[in-house]
């Protein structure tokens, strides 16, 4: 076993709050198909927050647990379990989600819709580590990795070996969030909506997912890109990254999204991507979607929220409402593609990442809440 530190999430004391603390943990050595990874950096995703603010037992959530699922490292594979073939000790790796590799979705090249995705990624497993001061075994293997730990046992299927793609340790830290947020935004354009030059794309929310979608829509040559957020600085940044139009939902004189979009394009947007999970924005986004257009849902709304649709109107509209997990991406293909685009100057994630020492995770969370940090990344110092 290895003694290390981790951010442990316990059951929230108040509704819609989180209860995180840095604690000493002991990590077991890897078993069959597992890898011991020494973390260098990990992004904080909205999913980490949502799934640690849920009461124990709801949707299968258990406590205590170690979250974290956007990570990278340099020379960090420290030990291998049996049958591991994709990496060697010392290799730098990027991590993404877990999939079983054998169900119908996995076999048809859609692992993000794996039949065990929810249980393995959102809930995880016990048995990978224990808390030093009381012997509790927290739920770990979150998204196959639980990267809010300085060391963690990771499923091989969650690993992308990047030894031939990475030029420096600084790049490793920079690319930490590629395996979730940016990947999801990328795939929402490439896969879920297949947006292209004939499309008017509207993106709701400009966190890492929204910015990833924006940069990819620009690469795809979409006819127009409309971005929506309540933080003016993010809207200004989006314009620098290629947005055609901006809508500030925090403005005192705001109108409905449908009215705002139809002033620009009378038929509405052909592709609307919601990254916020805000019910009113989802509903307005649907109304702003043109006939035969696509509404792609990514953001996690309040648990139990239902989108009411008039079925007859929906039939007549020909619209599609698409659920999007991880951008329907295969990480082993998506991550190298994003790295290539970065080197070509077309996917400038360096303009969007902000670093925090892992011990300063509360400051990173504050930046997310206030909208000042597009993609906060926790760095594990050695």
From TrEMBL:
<protein>
    <submittedName>
        <fullName>Alcohol dehydrogenase</fullName>
    </submittedName>
</protein>
<dbReference type="GO" id="GO:0046872">
    <property type="term" value="F:metal ion binding"/>
</dbReference>
<keyword id="KW-0560">Oxidoreductase</keyword>
<dbReference type="GO" id="GO:0016491">
    <property type="term" value="F:oxidoreductase activity"/>
</dbReference>
<dbReference type="InterPro" id="IPR013149">
    <property type="entry name" value="ADH-like_C"/>
</dbReference>
<feature type="domain" description="Enoyl reductase (ER)">
    <location>
        <begin position="13"/>
        <end position="378"/>
    </location>
</feature>
<keyword id="KW-0862">Zinc</keyword>
<dbReference type="Pfam" id="PF00107">
    <property type="entry name" value="ADH_zinc_N"/>
</dbReference>
<dbReference type="InterPro" id="IPR011032">
    <property type="entry name" value="GroES-like_sf"/>
</dbReference>
<keyword id="KW-0479">Metal-binding</keyword>
<dbReference type="InterPro" id="IPR013154">
    <property type="entry name" value="ADH-like_N"/>
</dbReference>
<dbReference type="InterPro" id="IPR020843">
    <property type="entry name" value="ER"/>
</dbReference>
<dbReference type="InterPro" id="IPR036291">
    <property type="entry name" value="NAD(P)-bd_dom_sf"/>
</dbReference>
<comment type="similarity">
    <text>Belongs to the zinc-containing alcohol dehydrogenase family.</text>
</comment>
<dbReference type="Pfam" id="PF08240">
    <property type="entry name" value="ADH_N"/>
</dbReference>
């Amino acid at each position: 076993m290895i003694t290390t530190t981790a951010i442990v999430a316990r059951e929230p004391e108040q509704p819609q709050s989180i209860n995180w603390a840095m604690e000493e943990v002991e990590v077991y050595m890897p078993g069959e198909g597992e890898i011991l990874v020494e973390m260098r950096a990990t992004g904080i995703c909205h999913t980490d927050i949502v799934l640690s603010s849920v009461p124990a037992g709801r949707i299968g959530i258990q406590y205590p647990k170690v979250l974290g699922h956007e990570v990278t490292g340099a020379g960090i594979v420290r030990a291998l379990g049996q049958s591991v073939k994709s990496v060697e000790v010392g290799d730098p790796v990027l991590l993404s989600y877990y999939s079983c590799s054998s169900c119908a979705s996995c076999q048809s090249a859609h692992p993000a819709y794996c039949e065990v995705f929810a249980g393995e990624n959102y809930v995880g497993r016990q048995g990978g580590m224990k808390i030093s001061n009381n012997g509790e075994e927290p739920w770990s293997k979150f998204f196959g990795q639980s990267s809010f730990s300085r060391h963690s046992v990771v499923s091989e299927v969650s690993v992308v070996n990047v030894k031939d793609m990475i030029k420096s340790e600084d790049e490793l830290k920079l690319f930490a969030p590629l395996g979730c947020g940016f990947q999801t935004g990328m795939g929402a354009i490439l896969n879920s909506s297949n947006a292209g030059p004939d499309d008017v794309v509207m993106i709701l929310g400009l966190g890492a997912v929204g910015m990833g979608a924006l940069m990819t829509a620009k690469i795809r040559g979409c006819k127009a890109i409309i971005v929506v957020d309540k933080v003016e600085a993010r809207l200004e940044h989006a314009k620098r990254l290629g947005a055609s139009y901006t809508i500030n939902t925090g403005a005192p004189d705001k109108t409905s999204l449908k009215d705002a979009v139809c002033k620009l394009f009378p038929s509405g947007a052909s592709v609307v991507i919601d990254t916020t999970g805000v019910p009113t924005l989802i509903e307005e986004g649907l109304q702003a979607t043109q006939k035969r257009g696509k509404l792609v849902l990514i953001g996690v709304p309040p648990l139990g929220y239902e989108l009411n649709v008039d079925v007859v109107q929906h039939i007549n509209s020909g619209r599609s409402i698409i659920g999007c997990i991880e951008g329907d991406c295969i990480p082993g293909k998506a991550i190298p593609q994003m790295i290539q685009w970065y080197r070509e100057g077309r996917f400038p994630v360096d303009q969007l990442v902000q670093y925090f020492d892992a011990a300063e995770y509360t400051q990173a969370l504050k930046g997310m809440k206030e909208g000042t940090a597009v993609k906060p990344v926790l760095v594990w110092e050695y």
